[in-house]
Amino acid sequence: LSAHIVSCLQVLCFGFPLSIFFIVINEFCERFSYYGMKAVLTLYFTRFLLWGDNFATAIYHAFVALCYLTPILGAIIADSWLGKFKTILYLSIVYAIGQVVLSVGSISDLTDQNQDGSPDHIAVNVALSMIGLILIALGTGGIKPCVSAFGGDQFEDDQEKQRSTFFSLFYLSINAGSLLSTLVTPTIRASECGIHTKQECYPLAFGVPAILMAVALVVFIIGSKMYKKVKPQGNIMLEVSKCVGFAIKNRFRHRSKEFPKREHWLDWASEKYDKRLIAQTKMVLRVLFLYIPLPMFWAVFDQQVSRNCLSPDIKGGFQIQPDQMQIVNPILIVIMVPVVDSLVYPLIKKCKLNFTALKKMTVGMFLASMAFVASALVQVQIDKTYPVFPAAGQTQIKLINLGAVAATVQFQPQLQNVTVAPNEATGYLTFETSKLQSLYINSSTLNKTEPLELLKEERYTLAFKWGPTDINSNLVSLFINNLNIAVNISMDNTDFGQLDPLSVSNYSDVSKPDCISAPGIHCGVLSKKFGYGGVYTISVDNVNKLSINYFEDVAPNTVHMAWQIPQYFLLTCAEVLFSVSGLEFSYSQAPSNMKSVLQAGWLLTVAVGNIIVLIVTGASTIKEQWAEYVLFAALLLAVCIIFAIMASFYTYIDPNEIEAQLSEEEKEKEKKDQDDNEKAAEADSRM
């Protein structure tokens, strides 16, 4: 009766085993938990734990690397000891505990005995945070190769189409979880919470992912009676390693020509190991060999074509920031996975094209290369808007006349004369630093020589005025108080503090300046619209009337952020073709007892890809960003060609069919041995 009920449920679920829906929901919740936590992790390091940027970045990448190295451990445990179900279950518990510990470690009130809003013993928070992250890395990395392989186990041998659709749904759930968490947790983090003082709410930002991980665990357990569970077959990784080692050793011993060649070098292990293990090892090594070029794809993909700093303004008054462009990728994934799976692939099949998994991966690598070519083209346009900074041995000076009459400035000794109108500024003038000694300012009310001590390869702004006092040369600044009294200046939420008479502020980042506040003025509306990426010097001349002069130091960006969308589209197409097909290929070509191991090998290519990025960018002497994009595109295109050649020699196999044949041969051999033993026993009895 129970078998009949399950069968009916499968029909109701469009021919899919009901158990896979629990697995997909589990993956969605787990990915929400991981990406939600990861989205606020760097800010947590720098703003809460008060780590420096470099140290925070190092710890962050160490954590990510650990998350992609631990899949090997999880795969070995699953295929050799506990099985996939128990491995996912136990490591999910470790995962959930890690999320809870991290959330608790982010509570400032935990050690805030004097109630000032800051932890009195930050070491406690650091220790809890590190313990939490290590547990999370063990959990998320350990279950990574097991969940997708466990989902593939739920299908029968004749359900290849459904299994292929499952891997698409599985990848869709990953990106749906990533999309929602990337939107939700930063918003939660930006809210304020706390017992004694209100501050950024990291406990809740980490707490929500912890809750989602607990939900993932519960959902996975609910479906436990419906799962098809493949039992582990001993320490298979150790046996494979021994088999490979013995084959190499035995082949070396018999390297002379007097020994006949064997079909495959692993056949030299046949003296010690059975045909089944040798055949399974061949399957695994053939796939792992194809994995060798794959890290280059991840090296390019992890750049996310997001280094461009483009104008975020969109017509209609809506504004997004450059880092928010990251959500474009998961949005496109959520849209494109069902489109590709239900429209593109069936259309290709109707055209009678044999679009195999390896061909899909090859096309994916090519599209990723083209994405970076597109990125390089956009970067070239961005570079055209950049100012020309001083070269080696040069200095640039900008003049601002804050007086009421025109003035002529002569750069000594006899280098150049420049006339500056009242309340006007020159562009940046370039000089050889060693030749420039002083400047002479001449006007109807002022004659003065100003000595200069300038650094090479620097930009300076010289603001001058005549009256009771003079303003000497200053480093480039954002605000100039052109009054004889101190004033407090703020722009939106940015407070520049008190500016002394005839003084300047430092540059500050202002996200969206709409008004300026000063004594007697609550919010003076700006007469000039600032552009994203622009740099400005603003002179306050009369606070009561809020008389303001603007001087543009660096022009704003004119390349719109929307030009990144084609890059993301190409990269998303590449990801759908490459990653989904890679997961499916890794599962379909793996022997039954090493599904998780090959999934772990697939994930290991991601870790190696990140290492490649560090090596290439660290060793590269390329200064232009577009040239670095071209470098990555060229490398990936070369790797794509190599992979296409390697894939053309690959012959697809059916591991289940091969293992079934081996089982039949083993049964026949056992029967033959049994018959021989019976005949021998009968002969002995006659004697």
UniProtKB/TrEMBL annotation:
Keywords: Membrane, Peptide transport, Protein transport, Symport, Transmembrane, Transmembrane helix, Transport
GO biological process, one term: oligopeptide transport
Membrane topology: Multi-pass membrane protein
Transmembrane segments: 6-25, 32-52, 58-76, 88-107, 122-143, 164-184, 204-223, 283-301, 327-348, 360-378, 600-622, 629-653
Main location: membrane
UniProt keyword Transport, yes or no: yes
Subcellular localization: Membrane
Span list, region Disordered: 663-687
GO MF annotation, one: symporter activity
Pfam families named in the record: PTR2
One cellular-component annotation, GO: membrane
Biased composition (Basic and acidic residues): 664-687
PANTHER family: OLIGOPEPTIDE TRANSPORTER-RELATED
Family: Belongs to the major facilitator superfamily. Proton-dependent oligopeptide transporter (POT/PTR) (TC 2.A.17) family.
Name recorded for this polypeptide: Solute carrier family 15 member 1-like
Species the sequence originates in: Cyanistes caeruleus (Eurasian blue tit)
Lineage: Eukaryota, Metazoa, Chordata, Craniata, Vertebrata
